[in-house]
Amino acid sequence: MKNRCLVVTGGGDCSGLNAVIRAIVRRASLVNDWEIIGSRDAFNGILRDPMEIVELDKSAVAGIHVRGGTILGTTNKGGPFSWQVQAKNGNWKSEDHSAEMLRKLEFLNVKAVINIGGDGSQKISQKLFEMGCNIVGVPKTIDNDLGATDITFGFPTAVEIATEAVDKLVTTAASHNRILILEVMGREAGWIALHSAIAGGAEICIIPEIKYDIDKIIERIKERIHHSRGFVNIVISEGACPIDGSKHYQVNNEPGHHDPRLGGAGNRLMHELKDHGVKTDIRVTLLGHLQRGGKPIAYDRIIATQFGVKAFEMVLNKEFGKMAALRNGKLVSVPITEAIETYNFVDLNSDLVHTARDIGICFGD
Ligand code: F6P
């Protein structure tokens, strides 16, 4: 019987996941003693009864690298350490089903696991590794917030989509002489906002790393409206905070959802501006999950393919408890502990932030 390598995609989806899966399968097909299987909806496919397993051979993954989403499905709820169980009274509770899951993997002859996911998923990888599971991580986050790798797939496509949105909003803002606010993803790190504001030519960019002062934003709006052009484009991260440091959350009743749901930072900013007497028309666009869907751009397909090949080679080399990463253009493996401990915030002293300031972008500080 061949060794089996289980592939799972966990956390929020993004463009490029399918390209990773395809690359793993194609690389594994070059050796004779391994076969690849996938679990539906992260580890849930293993945890469910009956199990939901997908055979992944070359024909199953043919052409999927150009498709958005993940053919395996994903979830950012529950998982082996917090499996959601509904009691008779309707309340949900978390149970640890990790030991049972590892027994199931042994029964399936799974000798290695590749977990493609962000920090939440890699925390699960680390705990499973500590329990003796032969696991390898592949980083995934559109927020570009994992410190152990220079870049992850999904982020470039999200920037492309956000930039296209800024481009479109600039023309309508100019036609109507309005203030248009675009809210983009980025829980703790403002990478998508920063990149799309520079690429699209927004006047104001609000990111979680810089607490914004509403008076500074109003100053910039006045300067622009009274002295140059009659419209303003603002890009704001969902995780943006005013001086008091508060983020704007949505009510979330989904059992087992890993993170509090963000959303509404753009609307909050609009109300703050109005409350401070700004009279120009303001409209808000929440780009939301459009940033996570659709075809990956070519660059994402390439990085994703590199990560997939590297991950399977890490399996062959028994580099378990490690995650594939790109550092200075080189594919390397780093301890998963490093990946979950180091966060990639926008460096306020970086060339990119200086460039943005030097072309006149206001960060609200
Ligand atoms: O962490 C990635 C991310 O896209 C965040 O930017 C966003 O806040 C979150 O996922 C949204 O998650 P959900 O799919 O549960 O709405």
| CATH domain class of the largest domain | Alpha Beta
**Strand line-up across the major sheet:** 3-2-1-6-7-12-13
Counting helices, strands and paired strands, the structural category is alpha/beta
- Residues in helices, as a percent range: 25-40%
Strand content: 15-25%
Between the first and last Cα atoms, what is the distance in angstroms? 62 Å
Number of domains: 2
What compounds are bound to the protein?
6-O-phosphono-beta-D-fructofuranose
Please characterize this protein's 3D structure.
The chain has 365 residues and is an alpha/beta fold. It has 2 domains: 3-153 and 296-341, 3-Layer(aba) Sandwich (Rossmann fold), CATH 3.40.50; 156-293, Phosphofructokinase domain (Rossmann fold, 3-Layer(aba) Sandwich). It contains 11 helices and 13 strands. The protein has helices spanning 17-28, 44-47, 98-107, 119-130, 155-176, 191-200, 214-227, 265-275, 298-316, 336-341, 351-358, and strands spanning 3-9, 34-39, 53-56, 83-86, 92-95, 110-117, 135-139, 179-184, 204-206, 232-237, 282-286, 322-327, 330-335. A 7-stranded mixed β-sheet has the order 3-2-1-6-7-12-13, sandwiched between helices. Strand 12 (322-327) and strand 13 form a beta hairpin. Helix 1 (17-28) crosses helix 9 (298-316) and helix 5 (155-176) crosses helix 6. The chain is elongated. The mean pLDDT is 96. Bound molecules: 6-O-phosphono-beta-D-fructofuranose.
